[in-house]
């Protein structure tokens, strides 16, 4: 494996509630712990028109801990 490969993981969310952040964080930590050395992760969180603010609040927490890109749509795109 090339020493600096990147992996992008897309997480589409639609009104997930507020319980997804702890499990998402643990899953990221576990994935990065088990990954080959030199593998870099980018997490793309897509707000697919959620009607609550849980995703925005969670993004504010997660962006300081992981390489996260946030995309938000005003309405659900299916």
Search tags:
three-stranded parallel beta sheet; 31% helix
Helix-strand sequence: EHEHE
So what's the overall shape? elongated
* Classification by helices and strands: alpha/beta
The separation of the N and C termini measures 36 Å
Helix content: 25-40%
Largest sheet: number of strands, sense, barrel closure: 3 strands, parallel
Low-confidence regions:
none
Q: What average pLDDT do the residues reach?
A: 80
Strand order within the widest sheet? Answer: 1-2-3
Number of strands: 3
Backbone CA Rg? 14 Å
Number of helices: 2
The portion of residues forming beta strands comes to 25-35%
Which SSEs are present, and which pair or pack?
Elements: E1 6-13, H1 20-34, E2 40-48, H2 54-62, E3 68-73
Parallel strand pairs: 1-2, 2-3
Can you tell me about this structure?
There is one protein chain. It contains 2 helices and 3 strands; from the N terminus they run E-H-E-H-E. With 78 residues, the chain is α/β, with parallel strands linked by helices. Helix 2 links the parallel strand 2 and strand 3. The termini are far apart. The mean pLDDT is 80.
